Structure prediction request, 163 residues.
Amino acid sequence: MLTRAFLSSLLVTFLAVGCASKKPNNGQDGEGNGSNKGVTLELNGDSDSNTAGGLTTVYFAYDSAALEGSTKSAVEANADFLKTNSSVDIQIEGHCDERGGRQYNLALGEKRANAVKEYLVALGVESKRISTISYGNERPAAEGHDESAWSKNRRANFVVTAK
Prediction:
């Protein structure tokens, strides 16, 4: 017959071993060197759908690729996330609203994606971890023909390409 002290000792040992083998709950299955604080980070996840960890979509003013105000702040926060999570590679997608011709919007989308990439690199993110592409106005985030929809479509979306 086992004594109560022996059973208590066995239980404490079992719990200690079981707890020590658990992976950290940081949204990355124990990989990487940063914490996502409960946010989803999926391969091919994107900031538009909130599945790109701590990365957020960056929005632009009409007919502009300038990083100003909240746009600049959003890129800075994304840089912090990428520096903390050094195994994450991204693609930046440049998007435009429906106004403007196809070629013009593709060029503007490219300028937006490149402006974001250049600022990320200036903030210390390795260039080799970032690729860019422009979709112009071909992949709207919001349907509609008014400023409310247009403002949501003038953006740079972040897509996780490696984690």
About this structure: Residues 5-38 have pLDDT under 50 and may be disordered. The longest strand covers residues 155-162.
